[in-house]
Amino acid sequence: MLARIKQFLGIGAKPKEVPKEEVEKVAEEKAKPRIGYVHLSGCTGDIMSLSENYDILAELLTNMVDIVYGQTLADVWEMPEMDLVLVEGSVCLQDEHSVKELKEAREKAGLVVAFGSCAATGCFTRYSRGGQQARPDHESFVPIADLVKVDCAIPGCPPSPEIIAKTVVAVINGDMDYLQPMIDLAGYTEACGCDLQYKVVNQALCIGCGTCAMACQTRALTMTDGRPELTSARCVKCGICYVQCPRSWWPADRIKQDLGL
Amino acid sequence: MVLGTYKEVVTARSTDKEIQKIAQDGGIVSALFCYALEEKLIDGAVVAGPGKDFWKPEPMVAQTADEILAAAGTKYTFSPNVLMLKKAVRQYGLEKVGTVAIPCQTMGIRKMQSYPFGVRFLADKIALVTGIFCMENFPFASLQTFISEKMGVSPELVEKMDIGKGKFWVHTADDVLSIPLKETHGYEQSGCKVCLDYVAELADVSTGSVGSPDGWSTVFTRTDAGETVFKAAVEAGVIETKPVDTGKFGLEILTKLATQKKEKAMKEIDRRKSMGLPVPYKASSEKEDPLANV
Ligand SMILES: Cc1cc2nc3c(=O)[nH]c(=O)nc-3n(C[C@H](O)[C@H](O)[C@H](O)COP(=O)(O)OP(=O)(O)OC[C@H]3O[C@@H](n4cnc5c(N)ncnc54)[C@H](O)[C@@H]3O)c2cc1C
Ligand code: SF4
Ligand code: SF4
Ligand code: SF4
């Protein structure tokens, strides 16, 4: 996995803090990475969030990458070979087109990224039980990792513009250390607010900091007696509370680097 | 380095008599926030404000000096301050937020800033994280046990609580009571037992009582932002400083306590890992510096 990402980035060892001019130079010299966007069952929030990065996006889209596939993004029908594909949305098992597109994306892309919580964890599509117009048979929506191998995940409902920008910068700089948690998160496909109880409180790890309740976008979490309390009817199973909890995983070195400590 | 990376360490206190009177130690947290508010370096600060029950704090967004002062003093139970940061920005519309944070809260904040997966437009609005030292924290019921049962005081009479010199202290209007710290053992929250940070290593500025005389605080400036605010507050005369005691009652005791906390936590981390329990930190065999907060 690591080797494949490195190959994609065209690096052997990880370079340190590359200055901007140099990045641009390398980007000019190297063939531009070919990126695809596959939109399955999601609300388009993820790509909206991406497009909020106006300041870096122009440079990115014009000079650093080639968007070679994607509804509304590229005028192509046949899926080409891609270095990286971002997949938004979960996959509906009854929808043969979605299943086929996802499988094809896996075959044609070097790296598959589950972009946003629907692709990564299923998110609110986990609640689907079918029986709705126009396709009452569309019942089962699962994270894409249930069907294909996923290389890295960027959860969020939607992922913040900032995490997208940081990820892009890390990819361009070949900063593997920054991407490692996202590689690890590819395996986190069954998410729920109750993870806080199972994986933090039950494991004698919770310290009542309130980060989970701060991070929850649906206000499904409150803090009661210093512990998170879940209103499950509000939970969309995005997994963000657990992902942001300081007791789930701890990126100490990156934090120190970011703070200059 | 058990005291974390820092630029400078000093002994300091607020020069404001009112703050001196109500603050836990040197009033550094309150003085810094009041100064930063006044100078518009922040437009609000998250603090542990009074809650419905005596000594059970509720995080609150303070936007005036009076509100900062109403939250002064240490409460030895949970105040999930990190939760309020988003409200400070979304509901109160703040652009530059300060917050007081015990070390583990600092960790939640810093992780969010480095990896803001699901948190939008907040990371860069955190302008000042004032960290406070922390050995452990207690569920509210544990506090009730100490105060009501072990000391026989009713909570509404308590004016101040403190931990120091091996004891848990309670001040009332006309009495000072204490129990030895070993009587509090077993009442801490379990999550603290794997905590590797005593002195808020990731804050902009961190402060605590240990290492300085009564009524004064020990202060570390850590980040550039922290150094700038603290120096400005000293220059403006709202905080006075003196050199920190490097001897037995100064940095020596602080270093000793930090080391003890980390060594104990490492033992517990290794023990839990050997049982197959999850811990987000590395086992001692996996890291270069066994006492680093990684
Ligand atoms: C649980 C706990 C354990 C501590 N353990 C130690 C220790 O072992 N050694 C040591 O030297 N110092 C310790 N401290 C710090 C110390 O008690 C003082 O809070 C610190 O020195 C700041 O004092 P001050 O006079 O500068 O602050 P003040 O001006 O009195 O302000 C204190 C600030 O802390 C906030 N606060 C109070 N309680 C909490 C809480 N539970 N969570 C988050 N914020 C809170 C208040 O809202 C206020 O803004 C601990 C603090 C806490 C909360
Ligand atoms: S984020 Fe903090 S309060 Fe929430 S589960 Fe994790 S440790 Fe507990
Ligand atoms: S509690 Fe909130 S953050 Fe956690 S999974 Fe549910 S919706 Fe997402
Ligand atoms: S000991 Fe650590 S985990 Fe416990 S309250 Fe203090 S900072 Fe938080």
Automatic annotation (TrEMBL), chain A:
GO MF entry, a single one: coenzyme F420 hydrogenase activity
Keyword Oxidoreductase: yes
UniProt keyword Oxidoreductase, yes or no: yes
Domain 4Fe-4S ferredoxin-type: from-to ranges: 197-226, 227-255
Classification via SUPFAM superfamilies: HydA/Nqo6-like
Family membership noted in the UniProt record: Belongs to the FrhG family.
Pfam families: Fer4, Oxidored_q6
Native source organism of the sequence: Methanobacterium lacus (strain AL-21)
Listed name of the protein: Coenzyme F420 hydrogenase subunit gamma
InterPro entries from the UniProt entry: 4Fe4S_Fe-S-bd (IPR017896), 4Fe4S_Fe_S_CS (IPR017900), Coenz_F420_hydrogenase_gsu (IPR017681), Hydrogenase_assoc-protein (IPR051349), NADH_UbQ_OxRdtase-like_20kDa (IPR006137), NiFe_Hase_small_N_sf (IPR037024)
Signal peptide interval: none
Keywords noted in UniProt: Oxidoreductase
Stored Gene3D superfamilies: 3.30.70.20, NADH:ubiquinone oxidoreductase-like, 20kDa subunit (3.40.50.700)
Record EC number: 1.12.98.1
